[in-house]
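Slide 14.
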Amino acid sequence: MDTTCKHRSEVHAVTPSSWGCEDCLRAGTSWVHLRVCLTCGHVGCCDSSPQTHATKHFRATGHPIIRSYEPGETWAWCYIDQLLLEGVPGPTRGTPKRPSVSKSPAL
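Slide 15: predicted structure.
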């Protein structure tokens, strides 16, 4: 599928930056699906999400390849070549855990 993608050399063993879309978490907005940048580990939301943070990250940085950060999905996408990629390794250095919500004891 990706016979003409010239950007695979920019894929690195990354640590995801967050358990969810880091920009949505900061802004208090929601997302539909998550993508992880395979150059730096930035976790952003997909183009079906209201804020499209993964694509905004690509436009700001030029990092070409994202991978689905959804359980069971292994596809990747090269923004520059507009190609769906198979066989691209995902994040390999741990996954940040969703923070637990601690409840204050009732007074």
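Speaker note: The first strand starts at residue 34 and ends at 37.
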